[in-house]
Amino acid sequence: MSQTATNRAQGEVRLKVAYKKPEALLSEYTRSIGRGGVTLQTQKSLPVGTRFVFEMHNPGVAAPVEVVGEVVRVTPQPHGRFMITVKYDPGQDRGGLDAVLQRIFDMQEFEKLRRYPRIPLHLPAMEEETPFAPPFFVRDLSRGGVGLEVEAPALPASVKVGMPFMLEMDLALGTMMLHGEVAWTSAGGPEVLPTFGVNFGTLSPDSAERLEKLLSLESMPPPPWRARVCFGMDAVMRMP
């Protein structure tokens, strides 16, 4: 990944970031839009209302994916520095985003081990019904299943092959409820988080429609993005 910054016009800062792989670009896009904004420490103050345009480039895609931001707060810091809070917006031009999504789908079309193409996500999720449960992160999503990481030294006892599973997320169209069962697990290692994968069951028409909208990033929740997960009987009882 490489980046350059330019001042294209008065009151606008344009930052260009290059990604070698479309999956890395899309993962950072969903991370940025999902958290809704960012706070940066700088040596120079910017007026509130200054427009940021983050151009995300991939060598295989002609048009960049744009994330638009606006400075909403500037806080002076010691030693002449400033904390600048930028609020993100997905932007209106979907040309680059659709092209990146299509390139990912094209690259995965001939993978023999996967039935459905998947998109990379960086979506935090919590097991709300279990006290002291570790954070989960949805790392990829497809029509057929989902892959998750666990921020813990080991997988929780509830995560084992065959265990019923439910992922819920509130979208603009309503709540998406994706149920299935754990299909595989990986214990991770010294520098690798534990992971597991889930195969979805037969989804309700509403959830299937909402999943399609999320996979195309046409229907996204308001930030900050959050999801809920549960296992075992909790998941079974919540299935629609």
Automatic annotation (TrEMBL):
Gene3D superfamilies: predicted glycosyltransferase like domains
Alphabetical list of Pfam families matching this protein: PilZ (PF07238)
Example GO molecular function: cyclic-di-GMP binding
InterPro entries to which the protein is assigned, alphabetical: PilZ_domain
Domain of life per record: Bacteria
Domain PilZ: 13-93, 113-215
Name of the protein this chain belongs to: PilZ domain-containing protein
Species: Archangium gephyra
